[in-house]
Amino acid sequence: MTREAVKVAPGVWILPEDIQVKGVRSQGPGGQKVNKVATTAVLVYDPLHAKGLPEDVRSRVLQRLAGRLTRRGLLVLRCGLFRTFERNRAEVTARLKLLLKGALEERKKRFPTKPGRGAVERRLTEKKARSRRKRERRKDLWRDD
Predict the structure, then answer these.
(1) Cα–Cα distance for residue pair 101/14, rounded to 1 Å
(2) Which of 13, 45, 69, 89 is deepest in the core (most CB within 10 A)?
(3) Three-state SS for 108?
């Protein structure tokens, strides 16, 4: 069964030879076909050796997806939402595409901002009110009551 390549971004592809999808038996209670049909799709992707990833993209993908990779450097995705293996296979491939797209996105550089004038005034007003409240609770040590 040959599958076509999936385009992730310009120059970045998920090639059929880069992924392994196998069927496993679904979890949970079953019916008559529970011990016969493997409908859950398990996708294994090796970004280190993937031919559809250019070298500059490969390093970024490995860095960004490091927390999701196994000790051997494989990305394993599993889907058992649907009753058919074909739909689960399509879903798990779509998830891989989304993960790769997210890993390729250029992160926005964050610039530190100053709090607005209103926020500063509210904070100072609240500080003064809190200070006054605590001052009013105090017993004056020099008064004899």
Answers:
(1) 11
(2) 45
(3) coil
Over the stretch 106-144, which tens digit does the pLDDT of each residue have? 888 989 999 999 999 999 999 999 999 998 888 776 666
Which 3 state secondary structure label does DSSP give 129?
Answer: helix
CATH for 6-104 is 3.30.160.20
What single letter denotes the amino acid at residue 142?
A: W
Task: Report the distance separating Cα 26 and Cα 36, nearest Å.
Answer: 10
Which of 51, 45, 24 lies closest to 35 in space, CA to CA?
24
Q: How far apart are CA 10 and CA 93, in angstroms?
A: 18
Instruction: Name the β-bridge partners of 23.
Output: 41
Helices 55-64, 85-104: axis angle to 10 degrees equals 100
Place of tokens 């076909």: 33
Q: Which residue has the tokens 């100053």?
A: 114
- SS3 for 141? coil
Amino acid identity at 38: A
What's the average model confidence in pLDDT over 48-73? Answer: 87
Write down the domain spans for the chain: 6-104
